[in-house]
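Any chance you could type out a protein's amino acid sequence plus the matching backbone structure tokens because I've never seen that pairing?

——
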Amino acid sequence: MKLRTILLAILVFGITLLAQYTPPTTNPGPAVERIVGKSVPIAQAAAAVKAGDIDVYIFGMRASLAAPLKGDPALALYTAAAGFNDIILNPAPGKAPCENPFSDREIRFAMQFVIDRDYVANEIFKGFAVPMYIWLSQYDPTYSVVADIISQLGIKYDLDYARSVVERRMPALGATKGADGKWYCQGKPVTIIGLIRVEDERKDIGDAFASALEQLGFTVDRKYVTFDVAIQTIYGTDPAQFQWHFYTEGWGKGALDRWDTSSISQYCASWFGYMPGWGTTGWYNYANATIDQLTEKLYKGAFKSFQEYIETYRKATLLCLSESIRVFVNTNLNVYVASQQLKGVTVDLGAGLRASVFNARNWYVPGKDVVNVGHLWVWTASSAWNPVPQGGFTDVYSVDWFRMMYDPAMWNHPFTGEPMPFRVTYTVETKGPDGAFDVPADAYRWDARQKAWVSAAGAKAKSKVVFNYAKYTSSKWHHGQPIKLADVMFIYAFLWDIANDPAKVARESGVASYVNSTMSLIKGIRVLNDTAIEVYVDYWHFDPNYIAYQAVITPDMPWEVYYAVDQLVYVKQTYAASRSSATKYNVPWLSLILKDHAKAVADVLQGAADQGAFPESWFKIGNKLLLTKDEALARYKAAVDWFNKYGHMVISQGPFYLYAIDTAKQYIELRAYRDPTYPYKPGAFYFGVATPVSVKAINVPTLAVGQSGTVSVSLEVPQGAGKIYYKWGIIDPTTGKFVYISDEASATTTPISITVPADVMSKLTVNKPYKFWLYAYAENVPVVAEATQVFVPKTAAPSPSPTAPPPTSPTTPSPSPTAPSPSPTTPGATATTVTTVAPATGTTEALAAGVVGILAVLAALAFALRRRGGGGEETKTR
């Protein structure tokens, strides 16, 4: 059956309609004339806002600095779970097995028990963080898929358990323990080099981890480093060189993702390029074939139902945890400080105020034509601005500024994580997970060997998407040249080329692996007219917005900039697109904001203009020529003129353009792009602030073994939140495992009444404490609220004799499921105190085998979320 879904730019859910915005101007472009950015130390951020030196600080405040600011009338504080920390372990094997303990999977998994996550969250972060066990927390929508797994794994701070593993495994690896209590390998101390960041709380996390390792008998060489040194050492060297054994990673989120397929790939799979070795040819590269297979299945939409997506995601999660290349520590509840006068703030629940395509365009302070923005850094030596995927824009100090300068084709909704139209409109057609379209002869793909567009006839694809780029093609690039469909098609060809040309793959292997994961799914493109294309993509998803997202390309820079980058990186090979290749080949890492790099780009284009060079084959698709030679020459001239005027080659199409950047002075200035053809005005994409569901109370009555009962859950639900989804279970705290777990259910009103069936209660033991576990989230703000409540089941009352009616008392009411009466002899049985859950603490001695056991009984855990749609299709659109 063919499903046809037309998606328009109406994905503004009810909750966002509450946001109010009064624009200071109705001119095309942003709300203010200028954004001025500067580097401000975190400790000075609040004072800088109060003094009027900056209007907003987009780097998350340190917890110790944020806590005293609560209630300060001069400041506005915005909070979002916009970053997280982990400890990445180097699994490369040493010459002797005992040289690197982290090459042993069991020792790596034992490191999960070395971190006291509650201490980190409550003491180091002063409550501005929550414990984290995988790449997701309850603030990520997809967390609902694995919340019960996280709650039952039993990972907790247990140094004794970690020690027992180390004591068992190190001798097996050939190590001996000296009289000093230290481990030795071939007569030398087993030394672990830890790179510990010093700019934020990661110093405390790294020190705590290092101290624990020392207690386990390892010698730790603590190297305290800043951003640039750490990035170059960790991601720019072969792990087998052992310049590091662990590193305190920190991540800034880019956006919410309703149904994650990329984060699990990024933090677990080798093919994505973020595992030790980073996909660089010739280096040691960590890989787990099963994890790679499962994550590629997720990323490429090779599941056939919503149910299979859930199953695959859960299996990959468990395997990634068992491998423990990363030990996730905490999600930061980042606090962003701003002036009370700043208007137009949208708090992305995944990114906060940074990494945002929503904020800068709508920010303004009444009476001022500038917004002054503070950041920890404007630029660092490890910030590279180039458009090659996985090459440039890999750190927050480049991403945060560039997101203010371009309009993406699609972006994720700031509250739901649902992909939505931004500057394209689209129509999705799919044959479903098992069907396929025949790609027509007038659809084309780029052939990297022939350097030409060739017919894609004979290929098959599960879906096709018609994209209309009219809101681009009716406007201009920042350098004044019209945006054309030729820009879009050139980028498609460029990506196919760097993923498939053998020489280019060899030059930038990590880039090629990442890009190919997407481009291999696109089977052909048909040019419909001057504004629209039809993309055939061999990809299916239960949410058609994700099909569109998989197929779309954003023209973020003009084709001529991509052309020059290709010449410098792949043809002349005088620059590298990625950090790792820059290190490997000892050439500069291309960054278009550095004047000498930008001049190299301009020189390529000036040379092309002087020679009349025109890469016609890149624009000739069938009998259509999307760009003429004269238009190409005009582009070269406009780009060179841009460099001569501004000294950089960052050219884009969004609400601001890059007017100036001074890397030495840590200064950046963006100016409003007021071209009358620009399609958006202030107020576009303003959403305001959302409030997730929170659990007020779980009221567990006196429950009796073998008898059904009703639990009442009180929730705080914001207006416009939509339907409420929830799941509940009962955990045996002594094992950390679920006695029972429900399917996901939904409700439209609160409080929620949950019936605990008699057969479930029959599995419990009288007078033994259990945990009633629950998660809940709202349709329009799918941030998971998770809570537990301890209860103690009692003996069931004896059944009354059929010949003797039960006695009654006029003063003592009998218990009722709808009006529970507490038992005076059971303290806590009816308590309504809610505790944010950490994973249940089971017996750690059995945990290593437990992970394998969980994998074996996944089906028995009822892990599939209940379908919330209807009819024969399993496509979810919310």
